[in-house]
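Hey team,

Filing this mostly as a record. A colleague (T.K.) asked me to run one chain through the structure pipeline before their review meeting, and I want the input and output archived in the tracker in case anyone asks later how it was produced. No errors, nothing strange. Just documentation.

Input sequence:
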Amino acid sequence: MRAIYKIAKTELQMLFYSPIAWLLLLCFVFQTVFFYTGMLEGFVLDTENTGRTYWCSLRLFIRGYGGGSGLWPSVVNILYLYIPLLTMGVISKELSSGSIKLLYSSPISNTHIVLGKFLAMVAYAFLLTLILFVYVVFAWCTIDNFEWAWILTGLLGIFLLTCTYMAVGIFVSSLTSYQVISAVGTFIVLMLLGMVSGWGQQYDLVREITYWLGMNGRVNTFISGMLCSEDLIYFLTVIALFLMLTIIRLHAIRQKQKFTITLYKNLAVIALVCLVAFISSRPALLAYADTTSTKKNTLTPVAQEIVGKLDGGLTITSYVNVLDSRYGTYAYPHFIMKNREASRHFTRFKPETELKVVYYYADPNEGMPGRPSAWQQARRLCEVYEMDSTMLLSRAEVDKMADLASQGYKFIREAVRENGQREWLHDFTGRGLLEEGATAVALKRMVMDVPKIGFVTGHRERSMYGDVPYDMGYLLTHRWNGGSLVNQGFDMVEITLDKDIPKDINILWIADMRTELTPEEESVLGKYIERGGNLMFMGEPSHREAQNKVLGKFFGLELTPLLVGPDVRFKGTLPTANLLATVPTQRVKDLMYQMKSTYRIAHENCAGIEQVEDKGFKVEAFLKTDTIGPVWTELETTDFVDDTVKFNPAVGEVSKVFNTAVGLTRQVGNKEQRIMVTGDADCLSNNEFVITRGVSAANGNLLAGCALWMSYGEVPLDTRRPDTKDSTVSISMAWYRIFKAGFKFGLPILLLGCGVFIWFRRRGR
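Output structure:
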């Protein structure tokens, strides 16, 4: 150990006696300081102008300000330029000068030589890290609630990456006596290690090894605030690999070994590293630590609970149609390993999950006149992507595996349990990712009962499947809309009121009932309400006569005539219209977290809701008309394009603030019955989400919120995470300018002074 220390000390002295070490330090400081101070200045200005900023730690060190890169990714991008210049002479100068023979003649081993020189390089890497640590400490002192654990995790990753680069540089330096060649060689090897992850991906065993060896992305796990045993072992193993290769190289020179013996030793070391790579990457052996305060890298507790209940084996198969327009995202073979990364946050909690990728070809429009066959298209595409067409399954073959026809032969995953249960896992991101909420909902169907909605038909109600403008298929049953209720955890069935409502119906949905219920149907509905069933009742002013009979009888409510008011698209400066923007009340924001940030809900042809009788329910306003201008019940005008609309109290028109959605509650047995009534069914129609009205509104939040409320918070799954609290910079601009000058000029001058001092000291000797 003493020998290693002496070699390291000598190497450090030689390093800092040369101008290259100091020059690189100065360049590193200049590059990082200018970026760091520029970013921090933006936060100081935000705080002085608005009183706060947001996500300071994340934007300063990780993501950047205004869409750029933070400090850590920027450092990673420049490190490879510094290391070859530092390590180019570590051993090559010994070989060129002949001083290596003096080391060989001394009673020290090759291992001592290599480890001593590597320790010196680690010390230099630590110095670079220490400079970065100064920035962290300053941010820690000036940013309230600074995410120190997260940022230090990223700094650890940068230190390990730097040490790995150093080990590579030392090995390359041992291969030649020319320092320039050593520097260029190190740069090439580092470049290859960045590219190796894409090599041999079409071969199963090779894919595992090369992907593991690739440096790209390894440090990003640390920067994201996640400590993973696989990534930690990677850096340590790669460092050990190149140090051992260097030791073998020096031993071959010292002992004048045959090339074959040296080759066998190198292959044995590489094989050992490959074995470690394979073992350390097994999901069951991985360990994780999320250092972010919000645990953003970890499944939320509700998702963890669901995954924890998936006992037995689980297979998730990704089906990729090469004729899919988005095939480039899921292209063979690179997607295979990308899929593993995308599933990592789930497999972390169920490591025995088996991941498969199936490539096939299927053209849903095959057979149309003039259209080439699916096989012809697939062969042409295989030529473009340099794929082996024989590996593709045909439409007939893949249909035997899963019902992909129902999914339009688009990219989709299917989860299959050991007991045979199957669920589709949609990719709503379009990037091949497993979105936490949607995936957890799909898995929940396998292990838990989900709420069931009965959608009433028989009186010309809106359709829950229809895709015409005023139906509701997009938000209720559309499989490719991540926000639809079927993708948020609800089962939905159509029912009629001519027979008793099934006991498994948790929520009844009536959307714009246009004709009156028969006495028998009223009795069926009454039984459901009496047993405490929850209900969503969406009214419309044009059919209020039939709807008021139900609302009045069971709830003591009444829909008003059509409401009109100033055109909300132009902030009340133009004539009135039947388009309203209503405001969520504080009560609905307290009950439904989706509504907390919602400013307005848009309504077309909306009625107000009045309580005319007490039926034992507590009635609370959820939405109210805006106070931008007067809103009234319009009894005369029907043409809102050509006619002029005026308030006329003489004919009975009423002007005030109206409720357009209310919530009703009462205690039935051991649960709270929940009813929601709206004066508008159009607000959740297909039309609302395909046209532009010029109104800033968030109607989708209303659906998600009421679904959450009526399911007692069960679904949609609450996968929210708290925001970081680092939203204030506690330093004035005046003081910031002083510290900025210190960073830009003081730190480089300090380093330059140290360099000059050491230079004079050496000359004095």
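Quick notes for T.K.: The radius of gyration is 34 Å. Residues 2-197+732-764 form one domain.
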